[in-house]
């Protein structure tokens, strides 16, 4: 039997921890104010409950402490910026900057577009062109980026159809329908796009605090909708990188490993 000293064992465990950190799948929740809400923490809890643990949410922003109280021990990192628009992100290159600030991002979980309609009054074609640019920026940073893309939740017309734009709710519905067709069309074998339908089944009155931003019930619905696609994307990265877990951490599968499993 080979004896391992305490310092050696500590060094091995430290190395294993570093390898685990390097090999964990990096997931960036990306968007505007709705991304700051607690559905992210709820999703994190659901992923872990489903046995998906080799991942790390990343981003320059931190969610509210209330989300951590609701879901203790969950990851609060994200890249959601209140009031932001997809068209501005695309024009200013914000996403590229944020991707460069993080370790290599493997998965982007995207929910973005309400403000382009409600605040920016942008034509739908203009918003779609901005989405094109954002996808290009993601894939320039990582040609194998896994993209989990949701359409928008509906808004309450009584609260958000205003004198400046009496068609906000209809335009949100129209954009959501466009995303439903658009997102799958952007999928490739190297960089899949997983469409998530958060529009269907979401009640803008009972599932929001203000006719737009999700309440507790809305957060639960969104997390449940995101779960299958997020799980699939994270596991796809793990499979493609050939990561298997060992006693001391993680190592890459070698050709010898593959021959032994045949």
Automatic annotation (TrEMBL):
Domain SGNH hydrolase-type esterase: where? 61-220
Q: One GO molecular-function annotation for this sequence?
A: phosphatidylcholine lysophospholipase activity
Task: Cite the entry's keywords alphabetically.
Answer: Hydrolase, Signal
Q: Which InterPro entries does the UniProt entry name for this protein?
A: Ester_Hydrolysis_Enzymes (IPR051532), SGNH_hydro (IPR013830), SGNH_hydro_sf (IPR036514)
The record's CDD domains line, in alphabetical order, gives: XynB_like
Q: What's one Pfam family here?
A: Lipase_GDSL_2
Signal sequence annotation = 1-21
Kindly give the PANTHER family that the UniProt entry links to this protein: CELLULOSE-BINDING PROTEIN, THIOESTERASE 1/PROTEASE 1/LYSOPHOSPHOLIPASE L1
Q: What protein name is recorded for this chain?
A: SGNH hydrolase
